Amino acid sequence: MAKSPKVPSGLIRRGELLELKLHDCTEPVKDILRKKSENICKQMRQKLQKSHSSMYNLGHKYSQWLDGYFIFDDIMTHTLTTAKAVGRPAKRFSESSDVTKRRRIHTMLEKSAEELSFATQMTLRAQGLRTAAEMVKRVFECSENAQQLKKQSLRAKRARSNLHPTKL
Asked: What's the number of domains the chain is made of?
């Protein structure tokens, strides 16, 4: 199947009009599309009737018309002008208070240390910080070994503390 050419913004191929997913659009954009589509549907119905209600004939007889473009400039300007930030601007995590930090990481508390370590590694790699990701991996591996060493040293201390020198 041939790849369709790059379409300039605000243009939709007539043949692709039926593939539009209105549930992805905002309400004002849906309204504009509904109004514009009335004329398009009327033209499509006429062309389908002229091709004896056959989609195959429609595709062959009106292929140039179907390959043409609809111009939706008012949708493009509408979506650009109405896109405004709503609410308080988000603070960076480091600038937040301890209470806000706790609230934001609440869902992460359910994850294991291994999962969090791996997620940190992936985030660092995505940012191009491969060395830092490798360091996190090594620290996590070392911390597991360090915990085992700590347990062993505590056991050894307890064993030594149970030994008392005898008086002669």
From this structure: 2
H or E segment to which residue 71 belongs? strand 69-71
Joined tokens for residue 109: 């508390």
pTM listed for this prediction: 0.36
Tell me how far the alpha carbon of residue 50 is from its chain's centroid.
45
Q: How far apart are CA 15 and CA 60, in angstroms?
A: 12
15 and 70 inside one domain? yes
* Residue 102 falls inside a structural domain: no
Q: Are 26 and 79 in contact (CB under 8 A)?
A: yes
Query: Consecutive sets of 10 residues in the chain, 168 residues long: mean pLDDT of each?
Result: 48 54 65 71 75 71 67 55 69 87 86 87 90 86 74 74 61
Determine the 3-state secondary structure of 69 from DSSP.
strand
**Interatomic CA distance for residues 141 and 139, integer angstroms:** 5
Q: Which residues pair with 71 in a beta bridge?
A: 11
154 lies in which domain range? 111-161
